[in-house]
Amino acid sequence: MEATDRQTTTVTHGRGMTILAWTWPLVLLAAQAYAFSVSPPDRDMGHLQKIMYVHVPAAWSAFMAFFVVFAASIAYLWRRDDRHDLLAASAAEVGAVLTALTLVLGSIWGRPTWGVWWTWDARLTSTAVLLLIFVGYLALRSFTEDQERRAKWSAAVGILGALNVPIVYMSVRWWRTLHQVQSSPSTVDSPYVWGLRANAVAFLIVLIYFIRARYSAALVERDAERRMDAAALAAGGGSA
Asked: Which residue has the higher pLDDT, 66 or 113?
């Protein structure tokens, strides 16, 4: 009965991932097309404003990924279940990619707007620090083959790294900064609201898909490692 339930869960999970794999590109393209078609050029930035429809949702999604890291890391330290560690690592990978995308798009926007590709602005600097923390988190995981030690170290760094997210978010209000205040449906003009909301939903679907895909791959890798270790032990016992 247990094997049957596990098989049913695997099939259902596979179907869900297949649906998401087809859904996220279509939803993302539709959201971008909608936003571009309904929003007029900005008075000051012209069509450059439309980078907001990727830049802002990418940043929001990165923050959500790091919240998953935070929650899963705490869950691991509490329950010592390695599935929580693998979930945290999967979310950290996706969050790091989205943070890098946020910085790249911000630089593309900043060059014609501020006249420079990069400046040590509070928002940009704190976001770069956030990226470095989670790149370090991912590098840390390769430093030891001891799964328990790796998971504990990663959980500590993941929790500390995620605590930087509120600093990044509030940096434009706490310090003097070139970066504008946080963009949200309440801070942008009405012609841009629904395009921003549509892309926020699209990026949420992208986030869910890639975290689930990476987590599934991590489970497969873990099970393969366990089988290899068991085979090595069996071979060693047989030769003895």
From this structure: 66
The model carries a pTM of 0.86
Tokens at 106, concatenated? 């911000």
pLDDT one-digit tens code per residue, 137-166: 999 998 888 889 999 999 999 999 999 999
Q: What residues does 42 pair with on adjacent strands?
A: 46
Q: Decide: residue 190, CB within 10 A, 0-12 exposed, 13-18 middle, 19+ buried.
A: exposed
Distance of CA 239 to the CA centre of its chain: 46
User: Coil, helix or strand for 1?
Assistant: coil
Cβ pair 56, 183 in contact under 8 A:
yes
Cα 3 vs. chain centroid, distance in angstroms? 33
- CB crowding 80-116: b at 16 or more within 10 Å, else e: eebebbbbbbbbbbbbbbbbbbbbebbeebbeebeee
Q: How far apart are CA 26 and CA 8, in angstroms?
A: 28
Sole residue written with tokens 């098989």: 7
